[in-house]
């Protein structure tokens, strides 16, 4: 979907598709090897088995089916990591699955159960302020909060649906300016109201978006110019546990 090799030279953590919305054995092994060579922390990125919709359409699974999807996709990536000489450190749900878990606690709990069943050592990367974030904390898991460089926010703290204006930010300068303002104030601008407080340990850039590499390069450069150190979130303290 994008220039994975080039973008792995820029990011510090990578969410790797596990064969659901995208990815296959060869792609998973190759991407994990490239990440490991560059010191990029790898995470499992399970999503709905919906390649046509790239995992961005809600598939009405049962709670048990959600558990099975997350466990089997994560397990597949961990098997690929064993071949690549790499390690999977965390789970971050993709697309419509992530948005579903953001609002529905039973779905969030299912993802937590599946993660713990596969490996209790895996951390959770969750959209800031969501049910998945809360469920992980209640379960005693290591959880990190993320914000998005290239997505708009609603005043509820949720992402603007991709079908609506303001969902995507394509201008790297706009994205970087917004992030620097957020990191200075703790408040994220919204499309429909006043800025809102969010926690953040990680900043996401979507690798499949047009101009993703330019976005990642510009955002990282501008953050560093502003005196903000960029590094893998899993090297941070565990006070957020």
Question: Can you characterise this structure?
Answer:
This protein is an alpha/beta fold. 41% of the residues lie in helices and 13% in strands. It contains eight helices and eight strands, in the order αβαβαβααβαβαβββα. The chain has helices spanning 4-7, 25-38, 63-84, 95-103, 105-118, 131-138, 172-185, 212-225, and strands at 13-17, 41-45, 88-91, 123-127, 143-148, 187-188, 196-197, 202-204. The strands form two sheets. It has a six-stranded parallel sheet. It has a two-stranded antiparallel ribbon with strand order 6-7. This is UPF0271 protein. It holds the Pfam family LamB_YcsF.
Helix content: 40-55%
- How far apart, in Å, are the first and last alpha carbons? 33 Å
Largest sheet: 6 strands, parallel
Shape: globular
Arithmetic mean of pLDDT:
93
What's the tally of helices? 8
Biggest sheet strand order reads 1-2-3-4-5-8
Q: Count all strands and give the number.
A: 8
| Low confidence ranges | 236-241
* Secondary structural class: alpha/beta
Strand content: 5-15%
| Rg on CA atoms, Å | 17 Å
Order of helices and strands: HEHEHEHHEHEHEEEH
Protein name: UPF0271 protein
């Amino acid at each position: 979907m994008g220039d994975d090799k080039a973008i792995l030279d820029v990011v510090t953590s990578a969410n790797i598709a596990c064969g659901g919305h995208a990815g296959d054995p060869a792609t998973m092994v190759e991407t994990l090897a490239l990440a490991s060579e560059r010191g990029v922390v790898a995470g499992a990125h399970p999503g709905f088995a919906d390649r046509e919709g790239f995992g961005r359409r809600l598939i009405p699974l049962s709670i048990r089916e959600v558990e099975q999807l997350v466990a089997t996709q994560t397990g597949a990536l961990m098997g690929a990591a064993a071949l690549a000489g790499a390690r999977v450190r965390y789970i971050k749900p993709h697309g419509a699955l992530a948005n579903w878990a953001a609002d529905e606690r039973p779905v969030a709990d299912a993802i937590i159960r599946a993660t713990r069943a596969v490996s209790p050592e895996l951390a959770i990367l969750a959209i800031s302020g969501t049910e998945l974030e809360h469920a992980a904390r209640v379960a005693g898991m290591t959880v990190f909060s993320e914000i998005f460089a290239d997505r708009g926010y609603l005043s509820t703290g949720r992402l603007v649906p991709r079908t609506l204006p303001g969902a995507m930010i394509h201008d790297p300068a706009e994205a970087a300016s917004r992030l620097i303002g957020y990191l200075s104030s703790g408040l994220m601008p919204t499309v429909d109201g006043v800025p809102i407080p969010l926690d953040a340990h990680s900043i996401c850039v979507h690798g499949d978006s047009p101009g993703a590499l330019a976005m990642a390069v510009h955002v990282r450069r501008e953050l560093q110019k502003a005196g903000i150190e960029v590094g893998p979130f899993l090297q941070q303290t565990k006070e957020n546990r």
